[in-house]
Specification:
This protein has about 300 residues and is of the alpha/beta class. It is about 35% helix and about 30% strand. The protein is elongated. Bound molecules: adenosine-5'-diphosphate and magnesium ion.
């Protein structure tokens, strides 16, 4: 059942390369010079508010939306899109199956169409936690179960990459949780994943890499870990804020300082432990009344990114 391991490379294989992609719908420039690369085994999130060009980008690489300019290459770049898409599993619309057929019957039908062995049906129903419900008619499923069946269907041909557009939209908290757990499970089995979402916590919880889009433009692209791994900032108060600012302005670890409502915010560019800062200031004759070290969450950083442009 497992596919043979063909190559064992130390460098991650490229699944998809996107270069300077543009899409214009008349006057609307929906995707602007977007470039990024998808490597095997990672989980990528395209994160951005509604209308930022996520679905358009997915539509282009899946060959259902025509690009205006730019390039995208699947795998080694030698495979044509039609062939390449046979190794891609994608759900970009609301799942739709035959309502009066069971989960199993619906998936067997997909197997017939795509020339896939029926063995895969139970295997994939298991992956999405629907094996016990295989004999239930599709129409009896909750939205979350319908979405899970769609994921099972997209996995039938053991794709190299699974692409999902807003996979948890419209689901209740339990359904959201189940879908996220399933995505993480599929990733742990080695399938590369690309998902579009307007939900920060979704990307933070599920993805290893993120492309932040706003109005069709990339604001950030890189690992989720790195966007989180900033040095943070101090929130300080003393009886001599003016002197405090002067002292810290010249410190090597300090990037910038802001003052608001009597509090001094000290943004760091390199590590600076609270106890070291406290000792340093004490030795210079400054007694702190207030000292808190904070770090921006992905959400705050995302809001900063999107506000500052
Ligand atoms: P997202 O998926 O991030 O919400 P979309 O890719 O759907 O964003 O849309 C990006 C922009 O392109 C929006 O301004 C949207 O109104 C516009 N757009 C999307 N599809 C079409 C279309 N078929 N015709 C005209 N404009 C479109
Ligand atoms: Mg969309």
């Amino acid at each position: 059942m497992a596919r043979p391991i063909v190559k064992n490379r130390t460098i991650l294989e490229t699944i998809l390369t996107i270069e300077n992609l543009n899409k214009k719908y008349g006057k609307v420039h929906a995707v602007k010079n977007v470039s990024f690369e998808i490597k095997k085994g990672n989980v990528y999130g395209i994160l951005g508010p509604n209308g930022s060009g996520k679905s358009t980008t997915l539509g282009i690489i899946l060959n259902v939306v025509n690009k205006t300019s730019g390039e995208y290459r699947w795998f080694d770049g030698k495979t044509d899109t039609h062939q390449a898409l046979k190794k891609v599993g994608a759900i970009i619309e609301r799942p739709n199956f035959y309502p009066y057929m069971t989960a199993e019957e619906n998936l067997k039908l997909v197997c017939d169409i795509k020339g896939i062995h029926y063995d895969k049906v139970e295997e994939k129903l298991q992956v999405v936690g629907l094996l016990e419900r295989k004999d239930s008619q599709f129409r009896t499923f909750s939205l979350g179960m319908k979405q899970r069946l769609a994921i099972a269907s997209a996995l039938l041909n053991d794709p190299e990459i699974l692409i999902l557009d807003e996979p948890t939209n419209g689901l209740d908290p339990q359904g959201i949780r189940q879908i996220r757990d399933i995505i993480k499970h599929i990733a742990s089995l080695g399938t590369t994943i690309l998902l579009a979402s307007h939900l920060l916590d979704e990307v933070e919880k599920v993805c290893s890499h993120v492309v932040v889009l706003r109005k069709g433009e990339i604001l950030y692209s890189g690992s989720v870990h790195e966007i989180m791994a900033n040095e943070g900032f101090f929130e300080l108060q003393s009886d001599n804020n003016a002197e405090l600012k002067t002292l810290l302005q010249n410190h090597d670890a300090v990037d910038s300082i802001e003052e608001e409502d009597g509090k001094i915010y000290v943004y760091l560019k390199s590590p600076f432990a609270s106890e070291d800062l406290n000792r340093y200031l004490f030795q210079k004759g400054i007694i702190l009344q207030h000292l808190v070290k904070r770090k921006h969450s992905l959400e705050e950083q995302f809001l900063q990114l999107t506000n500052h442009q």
